[in-house]
Design a protein that fits this description.
Blueprint (H helix, E strand, L loop, with lengths): L12 H13 L7 H14 L4 H4 E2 L2 H12 L4 E3 L2 H5 L3 H4 L2 E2 L15 H12 L5 E4 L3 H12 L7 E4 L7 H9 L5 E4 L6 H16 L2
Parallel strand pairs: 2-3, 2-4, 4-5, 5-6
Antiparallel strand pairs: 1-6
Helix pairs in contact: 1-2, 2-10, 4-10, 7-8, 8-9
Length: 206
C-alpha cells in the first residue's frame, strides 16, 4: 500500500520561481498558514490570481484533509483528468468511477452524477472527494450526503463552468461538510488537484 505520508519530492527550481512570482503578484498574508498553502498551490497550478479572491478554505477544512490523508482515507475523483493531476502517492490510491457510468434518459442524470452517486455508496464514511470538472458530480455527492448515505472527511469542490458550477459550489459552502471550494464559475481539474496536493504536502510535513 502506498504511504500517503511519504515526503514529497524536492521543490524544482521552476516551481520555486513560480511561488516567488505568486508571492510578488498576490498578497496572501491575510490567509493563515494552512489555507495559504492551499491557495498558493492553486495559484501556482492555474496562473490565475483571481482564485485568491474566490477560494473558500478554512483551517478546519485543512485540518480535516490532513487528518484524512494521514489516516489513509480513500480518495474519489469526478473525472480521470482530476485524478491524473494528483501527486503520485495520492493518484495510486484514488478512484474514479466515470468510466463505468452511463447517463440516464435524455442525458439526466449525467454520467458524472451517476458515477459520483455510485462512489458515494461505495465509500459511505471518511473518504476525500475531489471534484474538478463536473458540477453535476458535486450536486450528486451533496444529495447523497443530505440523504445520509455518505459522510465525507473532506470535499474539494472546484467544478468549472457556466452551467451549474456556481450553484453547486454555493450549495457545498452552505453545508457543514469540511470543504475547499470557491465562488463563481472558475474551477477545473488542475485547481482541484492542486488544492489536494497542497493538503498532501502539509500532511507529509513538506
Amino acid at each position: 500500500m502506498t504511504d500517503l505520508t511519504e515526503p514529497g519530492p524536492p521543490v524544482h527550481p521552476i516551481e520555486a520561481e513560480s511561488y516567488r512570482l505568486v508571492a510578488e503578484a498576490v498578497d496572501l498574508t491575510a490567509w493563515t498558514a494552512g489555507p495559504r498553502a492551499v491557495v498558493a498551490r492553486v495559484l501556482h497550478a492555474t496562473a490565475d490570481p483571481a482564485f485568491a479572491e474566490t477560494l473558500l478554505v478554512t483551517e478546519a477544512a485543512v485540518a480535516a484533509g490532513v487528518a484524512a490523508l494521514r489516516g489513509g482515507a480513500p480518495l474519489v475523483t469526478d473525472v480521470e483528468m482530476t485524478r491524473a493531476g494528483l501527486a503520485k502517492p495520492l493518484r495510486a490510491r484514488a478512484s474514479c468511477k466515470l468510466g463505468e457510468a452511463r447517463a440516464g434518459p435524455g442525458g439526466f442524470p449525467t454520467a458524472s452524477a451517476n458515477a459520483m452517486t455510485a462512489a458515494a455508496l461505495e465509500h459511505p464514511d471518511g473518504a476525500l472527494f475531489v471534484v474538478g470538472c463536473a458540477p453535476t458530480a458535486l450536486t450528486a455527492l451533496l444529495e447523497a450526503v443530505a440523504a445520509e448515505r455518505c459522510r465525507p472527511a473532506l470535499v474539494v469542490g472546484l467544478p468549472v463552468g457556466f452551467v451549474g458550477a456556481t450553484e453547486a459550489k454555493d450549495a457545498l459552502a452552505a453545508t457543514p461538510i469540511p470543504h475547499v471550494t470557491n465562488r463563481g464559475p472558475r474551477g477545473g481539474s488542475a485547481a482541484a488537484a492542486a488544492a489536494t496536493n497542497a493538503l498532501w504536502r502539509l500532511a507529509a510535513g513538506s
